[in-house]
Known about the structure:
By secondary structure, this protein is an all-alpha fold. Helix content is 79%, strand content 0%. The longest helix has 27 residues, at 58-84.
Amino acid sequence: MIALPLALGSSLAYGCADFLGGLGARKAHVPRTVMIAAPASFTVELLLWPFLGASFAPATLAWGAASGVASAAAFALLYRTLAIGPMNILSPVTALVSAMLPVGVGLAQGERLGPAGLIGLPLALAAVVLVSAGGGAGTARPSRTALVSAFGAGAAIALQLVFLHQAPAGSGIGPLIVGRAVSAAVTLAAAGVMYRRLGSERPAYAMSVTAGVLDSVANLLFLFAARGGDLAVVAVITALYPAGTVLLARGVLAERIHRGQLIGLGAAAVAVSLLALT
């Protein structure tokens, strides 16, 4: 049962990180935001190392590095997707793709769901789409570039989660440390190559750092949840992260929560309850 609250905490942290990262990406070029967020995440994991422990066996290094590459791509693609919009179409695409791949991997590895889970899992996937779908701008059609970016962001998030799950269970937060080191290195290298094209806008430092810290917390909670429960269940609960983004947008930006999103929030609550019974 401990996996369920950990997955919910991971979902909430991801949602808050995305909200702040998306706002930050509107104030400055995306790489400027990411080059602050990624090192901030790495710093958090280094600070947690003495308390949570870590080992660095070859398998840990390999899976951690793979997750780091996926994380760097996820950072850039997700913030770019949220910045160019329309978010009410692109956010559900990203969230659904990020859920489906880990669910498929979990089921392929032999995980089995009880009757409640067989109802709760598709209900949760439907809730992901409903919660992250807004209104008003719904008639705006996303560009091909925006759709590709949304699919890419979802796939990168999914791969990051799958790679973290594959790391040895006794490695502590080793996979997170390796992954974030690789992610920060890739991000800073890319920013260096693109430096002349980044513009002169000052990044939102506080937003970017907080987004990075929250992303690190989300990864940590997901890792422990996946080690204590089924990947298929943990991944789909984690993919409910748009709920946190929607609620923050309502509280901070006074954005309206639309009827479909309210239905999605209710469906998410029911789905989580059902998945808790599996």
